[in-house]
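Dear colleagues,

As part of the handover before I leave the project, I'm documenting each prediction I ran so the next person doesn't have to rerun anything. This entry is a single chain, and its sequence is reproduced below.
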Amino acid sequence: MTAPNKKPELLIVDDDPLIADTLSYFLGRDYAVSTASTRTEGVALLRDGKIAPALALVDLGLPPTPHRPDEGFALIADILAHAPATRIVVLSGQSDELNARHARALGATEFVAKPADPDYLRKLIGRVLSFRDTPPEIDDGLIGDSAPLHKLRAQLRQFAHSPFPVLIEGESGSGKELAAAALHRLSERATKPYLALNCAAISPSLVEATLFGHSKGAFTGASGPRAGYFEDASDGTLFLDEIGELPLDLQPKLLRVLENGEFQRIGETLARHSSARIVAATNRDLKREVREGRFRADLYHRLSVFTVAIPPLRDLGEDRIRLLEHFRAVYAAQAGLPPFRLSIESAARLLAYRFPGNVRELRNIAIRLTTKLAGKEVGVHDLEAELDLGHGSAAVGALPAPTLGGMAELVSFSANDIRSRPDFNLDATLHLWEEAYIEAAQQLAHGNMSQAARLLGINRTTLYNRIETLARESEVAVKASAGHSDFKRSDRN
């Protein structure tokens, strides 16, 4: 007897239990539904490997700021960092047009305002999941004739046959995983295994066992021996995405494999050997990470024997039109619909847009236009409805650094501040400045915590720790202030 097909997994992140329970009931017939009420809970489900959702339904207004979209925006980025293949539909009461556009630019495929009819959602989810990513049937998988792509192609062909590691750098959504696959496909290892591991997608406590394997009884839950990615990759290619997220204490073990091919399963003393070619990718500035002590310098130099920079979509000129035409043809064929057409004016508007979400954003635009305007001409108004015009016209800026003259002005300001405030407290003042800079970075990054951390020159984990510490300190200060007031009132009595 044939086993029934496994249901696709669906993640719902909403802090309203009535909505989460209702959607779980209606959608549970077609999907294996998991729910979370906060961004932290949703990310934990992904990192622990408990789910691999085909689609996530995400509310923008999540704790601790349910009346603002920041947590939801950050969650979109987190989901795509942990599970890039997951499609995202935003279901939110924060339904003004700017929020919808920005959510789509970050990577959401669709935006639905609350309240939403469950049957409509079921049909929408089915339609979104019917569109499958199909890589171009060409050796390098790259579409376009721009100078940056010609340079990228030349590098991929030059480095493909070397056994040495390659480090791929580029913005989120720019196609780093496509370049990694091209390096394998163009190499003499093309018939050998190609494995990909997203270092951000698994819990730090599981990374070592995932990479190197473990023996029976090596830790709680290790009911039998298991090979890791290095063994399974054999003499093929192992792609380590988001390498900047690799825990610092595990980096020496990866360095050892890169230097002599040796590793050990957890719980074993037997030395094993891997001949896999390592390709790593990151959207972080690893040189800065090295300077700040968050990434080992020797590992960085070993990984970056060859370095490939993926150009952002905004630098690819008319290749943006060619890519849109590719996605248009693929998704129209999948949906059995006639393809849409760009007007001359809308094509010019597309070329003027900066695509903060890179190729992923362009792909989602093609999906929405295929659904809404199949067989029709897309005018400027139609196209602009899909663009993040509030944020897409410029890249996220950097936080200002004080100049020498600026420092003198700051010292003068500080002196006046101290003189004018008899109750001046350095800790409290630094607390306020730190809160202000964190808030400014989050605003500049539009809620993307990884990007905010880079603007501040710290890693994402450190940023979360700083925010939690500031919240605890504020809570303690409020309680202390309340207690002091109660004391003064009782003293007067």
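The two ends are 83 Å apart (CA to CA). The chain has three domains: 9-130, 147-309, 404-492.

All the best with the project,
I.
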